[in-house]
């Protein structure tokens, strides 16, 4: 918790009619040192108070001053419409580090207590490649999952597998015909894809084959043992493949219930929408017209052959999740290609008769594409990069770099895994999610750039300082007067901001905020390290700087872990 923000907000609240929480949300942390450590902008009050912002600022400053400053605030200044607060530097160091030493889990909180957040992420499709877009949702959703949990929410990670649809009727037909020609157990996804492409071609030539495929799907829905057995086999071999990627990334889910589990519940959705007159017939299909909601494409609920749709299954899943998890928020982490889909689904959800709280809790967390320098990395058709290969390539490259930099290092393989995987995870998170990413090996593995390896490298540096010092001091051995220089203060201020950064991530569903923060902290520590002698000063100074080093290392490690990255102790 930011103690000074609290102190300042309390003082401003005493001087005005504003509520503390509102004041806190207005308070800014100015860049640079000349405008103080905290600033309160008065622009938004101007209309209400019918005064110019500088006048309001002046009045607040005077009242706060009269209100007697305790030793936390050194000085208050008014510039333009801002009241600037200068915190006593020693006091700043003391408060921040005292707060730090009290908590084993720095930055964690209970603000989410009693709130349920379901996060739908990863969700690859059975018998289809796990593509680079799935990597991004896996990493983004995983980071959100960790951060929500750390803030005390009851986070529930859902891997809503794409294991349902008419294509499985085709796959079954292809397998029946040529299954033994393909090495499904060796390379399941590629081989199943080949079967799928082949049967699709045949369907185009021969209407009878297509009929057979439809028949298979119907049988699958009706629980025919042979069709179900094949479908289960496809599912099993696919999950085994996906699991290799999840193992590398450290991804965890609380539920693997896919579309197939939900599909039978879509009947209920259709019944509700039919009864309340929302559903209309259109060329044999059933749709919901959303023209009135400003969405020109209607939402298809049932196909003309009577089967459920992606949308109707998502609607059924909303009802199911509301009942099962009583969610306060339901996040869907998918690429922006699905923006229309979720707009439609969330609009139709208003007509399901569920509590409004659930409808309000629905949120599409969309993200941009990942491109190779030559263009889009994965398309529906091809040009597909195998994600497992991508991760292993990154590990291999990391190992080469490490071996070059530090030939003596032990356990290179294990460290390379952390660095290589960390580099990929960080590159997926450090760009704000709505933006497209261009993938570039040199950029993501640059130890000096704004990368995962740079954060790991800085952490390793903090650990080697601790090792060299040979002694980790207690807070009582810290002399705060040695932390008043700008470099130490910069590190301290960032450490102080950590919890707020995590809250911001959950307000915007944006792990990039944490990624940037960690870069800032690593940079600030590097400057501190370059400008201040840590080891070999007198004992008091050394203890103090080692203490700050320990704190920085801990925040870097916790932050990286929340993003899904492991820290090496050496590299
Ligand atoms: N399986 C889908 C895909 O790969 C993503 C599913 C996202 N979640 C959902 N509830 N629709 O595109």
What's the end-to-end separation, in Å? 33 Å
Largest sheet: 4 strands, parallel
Average pLDDT over all residues:
93
The counted number of beta strands is 13
Give the number of helices: 22
- Indicate the overall shape: flat
Instruction: Indicate the low-confidence ranges by residue numbers.
Output: 378-382
The assigned CATH architecture of the domain at 387-563 is Orthogonal Bundle
Strand content: 5-15%
CATH domain class name of the domain at 387-563: Mainly Alpha
Rg over CA atoms, rounded to whole Å, is 28 Å
Q: What would you call the structural class?
A: alpha/beta
CATH domain topology of the domain at 387-563: Isoleucyl-tRNA Synthetase, Domain 1
SSE topology sketch:
Layout: H1 3-15, H2 20-26, E1 38-41, H3 46-49, H4 53-66, E2 73-79, E3 82-87, H5 89-102, E4 116-120, H6 132-150, E5 154-158, H7 167-178, H8 188-205, H9 207-221, H10 225-249, H11 259-262, H12 266-275, E6 279-282, E7 285-288, E8 299-302, H13 310-325, E9 329-335, H14 339-349, H15 356-361, E10 362-367, E11 370-372, E12 375-376, H16 387-405, H17 412-429, E13 437-438, H18 441-444, H19 452-469, H20 486-508, H21 512-531, H22 539-563
Parallel strand pairs: 4-5, 4-9, 9-10, 11-13
Antiparallel strand pairs: 1-3, 2-3, 6-7, 7-8, 11-12
Residues 120, 123-125, 160, 162, 314, 317, 332, 334 line the site of arginine.
Put the structure in a nutshell.
This protein is an alpha/beta fold and 571 residues long.
